[in-house]
Specification:
- The protein is an alpha/beta fold.
- It has two domains: 122 residues, Tetrapyrrole methylase, N-terminal domain (Cobalt-precorrin-4 Transmethylase, domain 1), CATH 3.40.1010; 116 residues, Methyltransferase, Cobalt-precorrin-4 Transmethylase, Domain 2 (2-Layer Sandwich), CATH 3.30.950.
- The protein is built from eight helices and ten strands.
- The strands form two sheets. The chain has a five-stranded parallel β-sheet, with helices on both faces.
Amino acid sequence: MQAGTLYLLPNTLGIAHPQHPLFDVIPVEVQKITAQLDYFIAENAKTTRAYLKLVSANFPLAKPLQELTIAELNVNTKATALPELLAPLLAGMDGGLISEAGVPAVADPGANLVRLAHQHGIMVRPLVGPSSLLLAVMASGLNGQSFAFNGYLPTDAAERSKRLTELEQRSRKDRQTQLFIETPYRNAALLEALCQTCHPATELCIATDLSLTTEQIQTHPIAYWKTRLADKKLPDFHKKPTVFLFLA
């Protein structure tokens, strides 16, 4: 029996226009493919059903929303559980891997499942959609020829400072843009750490609410951000998804 296809389904980064929440960022063909599937692998079944409800407003779903199968894959999923998630595809069913926001398997727990799919000969098809990381690189004005995503930095102040120093040294040596993210309510603390640790000439981009009507993207030297901190004029990024990028 021929295995099914694993579609990597993009999600929005947030709802910019309630009247037409998907058409600005999710291509029509991607919505059509999503609507045709009845097996999904997602971080959270409840929020995925909410997203599929938006899709259903544009294209009829393969089954009623509550009859769709949504298996969960998140940071708590053990590696031993991955084969079971792929079992329907090995039996010939197509399936979709979908992230909570943006594209799956990038800053997302789905990468291990994708690798296992390749090992089992399952066709993997990535579909076009918004990636906050790539949008941030595009808009930053920093080096888009060489960049690295470093995930979350340590929460301990000393460890975070040490890590920032290492990343700045790598950036200077390789002329490589360094990307990282933070839990949204700690954005201000991360900016303070950057200003305390990095060289004044290092260029820092702060990209918030990408693809939304509240989007903000600013690139300035650390010296500028220090002045903003001193004047208590922080970016409007409290509790908002933000990508930080710097180039030394």
